[in-house]
Fold:
Amino acid sequence: MNFRQELKGAAAKVLSTTLCAMTTLALPALAQESEAMKKGEAAYQKMNLKEAANQFREVIRQEPGNAKAHQRLGAVLAAMEDYETAILECKQSIKLDGKNFLPHVVLGQVLANQGKMQDALGEFQEACKLKPTSFRSHMDLGFACTHMGKIDEAIAAYRKATEINSKDASPLINLGVLLAQQGKYPQAIEAEQQAITLDKRVPEAHINLGNIYAESGDTQSAVQSFKDALKLAPGHPNALSGLGWMLEKQGDYKGAVENQKKALKTVPNFSPAKRRLATALAALGDNKAAETEFKGAIKLAPRDVTAHVEYAQFLEKQGQRESALSEYKKALEIKPDSKIALEAMNKLAKTK
Structure:
């Protein structure tokens, strides 16, 4: 099952949900538990979810007040995507044992998968309160805060996760993305570099670092970061598109087109690559193909402000003033505070 998507920049990584929430099982304690509970735990560890569910149900039949069995069953059912029943089991576990953080984690993950992010946020906050040393709880809290637009709170959650487990690169990878969103590029770069030091095998950290360098204006370092990512994952669409983006900035338009096409061959509906392909084609003077790609990018991602702005700029250069104004207006409808769209539209509106 999918716990939506963790940040990881443009290369977001899918999390396996409730299964993470059960990795904290205290296996040595199994000797004091019933035979059905032991079988359920063993089946879960082998990822035999159907058998695990049957065994945990048997425990609950024998011991209706067993909070742990309800929590385990809730987690297994969530992994099987039986969300509604999983919610009931988690809530029953919480009712029976209000001090256990795990049912709050599982419940929060299920709610997040249902798009109920505000409710999920509350569950993750409660999990962190009940167990301040839970790495998983703080990672999930960071995820929920990010999707709720609570960037400062998300940064704090990921920093705490790093304190809890200084050997895991994941919180640093996400932290770098958020710091870059705040324009704190040196700190963002440091976070991604620390992640790479911990685990050089994760292409997302290199891709994020490339994006951060690009946003900060360090094109050469961005190129190297995207190339480093491609050494680890040769066909990674985000790395290919990022490299093409930087090659375009360096004036290598043919190289830019080549890399964007490679990215789109891997993921045909990757709208940023389509948008970047359009600008590179326009730079080469192939306006017909560029317009096709711009329209394709907007069709794939109608609320992509950058796509509307770049298409408007393209139209403006073609002398299509009214069409350009229309695209700028669409960009501002999506993001009223888009400075680049507002300035460009006002400038164009004053010209005759």
